[in-house]
Amino acid sequence: MNFVQATVLGIVQGLTEFLPISSSAHLLIVPRLLGWKDPGAAFTAVIQLGTMLAVLLFFWRDIVRIIGTWFRSLTNKELRGHLDARMGWYVGLGTIPVSVVGLVFNKMIEGPARNLWINAASLIVMGLVMMVAEWAGRQKLEVGDLNMRDGLIIGGFQCLALIPGSSRSGSTITGGLFLGYTREAAARYSFLLSIPAVVLSGLFELRKVSEGGLPVAGTAIATLVSFVVGYASIAWLLKFLVRHSTLLFTYYRVALGGVLIGLLAAGAITAT
């Protein structure tokens, strides 16, 4: 992996990790279209640490407050009903489903699932599900209205992100919309919920760098670039969702999925 390839993949990761259009799908599609080698699922998981660092920096005040309040609530009963204390539980427990499912289906995710037919289908299907959520959701609830049931349900939606082409942010934001949360509220909880799962996944795959399974320099460059671009993407998306719907991303997903199916059917690119 040369400098240009690492930079391009870092930009792709930073742009698509938080936009509900699937970073894993784009990190598979872009190299295939450009004639590069598949960087692999481990590379994808590791450079996500860059975008997670962007989340940590962007929401650092919220994160410090949540962690501090959660720890104090363990001994202070008066704090247990506080939103920050509850958010600590929601994020922690909401991460369990995706962690368990990810470990159980790890080999499938890193192998057979990296198929462009699957990615194309997921892009389209999840895009249509997002459209339904946009139309059906009441979009009246804010982050402060979040409860344990909703936190766990959205955590369950995060499991859909394990299907290549689905999108982590797309899956969790869709879950929030179905439950009646505003787009911005759903996005904010989505970003916070993604931190433990992505960090654990990235650290789990990071061992492959020392084992020689990943290019050290290329992975480092891509991770750094994804951090810078990812930070800008978070800021843009939160502002965008205040005034606009998610339908733009639905149209993009369906169009991209359709183009992929066309290219695959014509034999212009291979599925694996």
TrEMBL record:
It is an enzyme of class 3 (hydrolase). The lineage of its organism: Bacteria, Bacillati, Actinomycetota, Actinomycetes, Streptosporangiales. It catalyses: di-trans,octa-cis-undecaprenyl diphosphate + H2O = di-trans,octa-cis-undecaprenyl phosphate + phosphate + H(+). The keyword Kinase does not apply. It is a multi-pass membrane protein. Belongs to the UppP family. This is Undecaprenyl-diphosphatase. It is found in: Cell membrane. It comes from the Bacteria. Pfam families: BacA (PF02673). NCBIfam families: PRK00281.2-1, undec_PP_bacA. The keyword Ribonucleoprotein does not apply. Bacitracin is thought to be involved in the inhibition of peptidoglycan synthesis by sequestering undecaprenyl diphosphate, thereby reducing the pool of lipid carrier available. Its EC number is 3.6.1.27. Keywords: Antibiotic resistance, Cell membrane, Cell shape, Cell wall biogenesis/degradation, Hydrolase, Membrane, Peptidoglycan synthesis, Transmembrane, Transmembrane helix. Its main location: membrane. It comes from Actinoallomurus spadix. Catalyzes the dephosphorylation of undecaprenyl diphosphate (UPP). Confers resistance to bacitracin. InterPro entries: UppP. HAMAP family: Undec_diphosphatase.
